[in-house]
Design brief:
Elements lengths: L33 H21 L4 H31 L1 H25 L3 H27 L4 H26 L5 H25 L5 H31 L3 H14 L1
Helix pairs in contact: 1-5, 1-6, 2-3, 2-5, 2-7, 2-8, 3-4, 3-7, 4-5, 4-6, 4-7
Keywords: Membrane, Transmembrane, Transmembrane helix
Organism: Halosimplex carlsbadense 2-9-1
Protein name: Putative ZIP zinc transporter
Length: about 260
């Protein structure tokens, strides 16, 4: 499960633009193609928001999916993002960038919550804004993993797809109460473009960077994910589904650990 990505210049060749080949692992094909990850990330958001807008499943079901995704992301942020950075650039730099991600995105989430006028808007427009901003470092980090750790990228894709899909579902349900349905869908379409673009940018731009900056970006992304888990995902899930999210979180953790 735990694998350390070989740094650029020491066993990892430069990434060709858009070939979709995981050079270090030797894996090729669909599961190593960045466009698959970009498309799947976008599709999860679009399907989730559409279901939330036009079907509106029970909120406790939506919260359960949210908790499953949250448990999954705990594994990915620890083993696929922070631990390799911790080993490659050292404990103190990695810890500093990790805390930086927590501070930046924790503060941003608080600002978004205060900007929202009421609880419905907070779980609607506020959640949409949070997913859009948090999705950039998360998906960029996932794209960078494709240069040498396809299994890690796949595990992170699972967590992000479940979490972002359920967040978009919950947001779509709430936004549709106060906004025109097609406008809500258009907003999530914009977010889908942003996160998919972040995957491609992470794949093409990050791997050729020096080892230090790759570790810094991944540590920062891990902090951003943890801030989202603590500030948005778990509180929202618990409020809607109660103690049952404990089991759902465990399921997400175990499935991703096995991946």
């Amino acid at each position: 499960m735990i694998s350390v990505v070989a740094p650029v210049g020491r066993g990892l060749a430069a990434v060709p633009g858009g070939t979709g080949t995981a050079l270090q692992s030797g894996t090729s094909g669909l599961l190593a193609n960045p466009w698959f990850y970009a498309g799947f990330s976008a599709l999860a958001l679009l399907v989730g928001s559409a279901v939330g807008i036009w079907i509106s499943p029970p909120r406790n079901w939506q919260a359960t999916l949210l908790a499953i995704g949250g448990g999954s992301l705990v594994v990915s942020l620890a083993f696929e993002l922070f631990e390799p950075a911790f080993r490659n650039i050292g404990r103190y730099p990695a810890s500093g960038y990790f805390l930086g991600g927590i501070v930046v995105f924790g503060t941003l989430d608080v600002a978004i919550d205060r900007w929202a006028d009421d609880e419905t808007q907070e779980r609607g427009v506020g959640l949409w804004a949070s997913v859009t901003t948090d999705g950039v470092p998360e998906n960029a980090a996932m794209g960078s993993l494709l240069a040498g750790n396809v299994s890690g990228a796949l595990a992170l894709l699972f967590g992000l797809a479940v979490t972002n899909g359920s967040q978009s579902m919950m947001s779509g349900t709430n936004m549709a109460e106060n906004h025109e349905e097609l406008k809500v869908m258009a907003g999530w379409a914009v977010t889908a473009v942003v996160v998919s673009g972040a995957v491609i940018a992470g794949y093409r731009v990050l791997p050729p960077l020096p080892d230090y900056w790759i570790g810094a970006i991944r540590s920062f992304a891990a902090g951003a994910i943890l801030a989202s888990l603590a500030g948005e995902i778990y509180p929202d899930a618990y409020e809607e589904a109660g103690p049952s999210i404990t089991l759902a979180t465990s399921v997400g953790f175990l499935v991703t650990f096995l991946l």
